[in-house]
Design goal:
This protein is of the alpha/beta class. The protein has one domain: 3-Layer(aba) Sandwich (Glycerol-3-phosphate (1)-acyltransferase), CATH 3.40.1130.10. The protein has ten helices and seven strands. Strands 1-7-6-2-5-3-4 form a seven-stranded mixed β-sheet, with helices on both faces. It is globular and about 45 Å long.
Length: 274
């Protein structure tokens, strides 16, 4: 009950703040399984597109939420799980490079006078001394050995291959939601932009389109929300915003990853001028 009341209050606040106008330009609102994919310029994108959906679609549609932002406080965790029914995803790039191992140390040699020759004894003849070629290069004659040179740095990790198990791991929560029959809202750029032009789409949308060919792919353009709460800001500003939903696209037979992602991105950009 509390979550329902909070959802109603939040929906009212968002609509008063932004207008939250929904324009179904290319397809009608329909209770079928869909993947809505949109541009991403603000943390409010999630809330904006959720508020733009009619009630019968909000109940079956789950937006993705970056765990490193939306799960940082108990209140935000409660909002995203109980009100938005969001799917947490992990952000971040390739795994960090492990630190280089410490250089191996030579055994410490403590000076001792036990084997020192008696006073007055003549030093060893030059022929008895070790030739220079046998002296280790990192030692200085007459001094304790120095540490060996540091080991070479570990090379950077190889880039993640699309379709590999490592690339599929972040998609598992989305795959489970689609397998359970939910619709989802995703932002294929992977991170918020600040230029007004969507960045290149990442491969997750392509993978989901391959795995779930029966799910309808609906592009969406979220307009003006970056001015309500731009990247780096925390206080929203009242500005009229809208979400335009375009005509569905589909992955064509034999279509490769990058051409499909570029076409999906163009479908989103085209809605900007509608």
């Amino acid at each position: 009950m509390l979550a329902k009341f909070m959802g109603w209050g939040l929906l009212t606040a968002i609509r008063l703040l932004t207008g939250a106008q929904a324009r179904w330009w290319g397809c009608p609102p329909k209770a079928e399984q869909r993947i809505y994919f949109a541009n991403h310029q603000s943390h409010l994108d999630l809330v904006m597109i959720w508020a733009a959906l009619p009630e019968e679609l909000r109940s079956i549609t789950r937006p993705i939420a970056a765990r490193d932002y939306w799960a940082t406080t108990p209140f935000k965790r409660w909002i995203t799980t109980e009100v938005f029914n969001a799917i947490y995803v992990e952000r971040g790039g390739a795994p960090g490079v492990p630190p280089a191992p410490p250089p191996s140390e030579r055994p410490r040699i403590e000076p001792s006078l036990d084997d020192a020759p008696p006073v007055g004894t003549q030093p060893a003849a030059p022929s008895e001394q070790a030739p220079a070629s046998e002296v280790e290069p990192w030692t200085v004659q007459g001094e304790l050995p120095l540490a060996q040179p540091a080991a070479e740095a570990v090379p950077p990790a190889a880039p993640i291959t699309p379709g590999s198990a490592e690339a599929m791991a972040p998609l598992q929560p989305l795959i489970e939601a689609l397998r359970s029959g939910d619709s989802i809202i995703i932002f294929p750029e992977g991170t918020r932009g600040h230029t007004g032009e969507p960045q290149k789409f990442k491969s997750g949308l392509f993978t989901l389109a391959q795995m779930f060919p029966e799910v309808v792919l609906v592009p969406a353009w979220i307009d003006n929300v970056q001015r309500v709460m731009p990247k780096g800001e925390v206080v929203p500003v009242p500005i009229l915003c809208s979400v335009t939903f375009g005509a569905p696209i589909r992955l064509e037979e034999g279509e490769e990853r990058r051409p499909f992602l570029d076409r999906a991105r163009e479908a989103v950009i085209a809605l900007r001028s509608v």
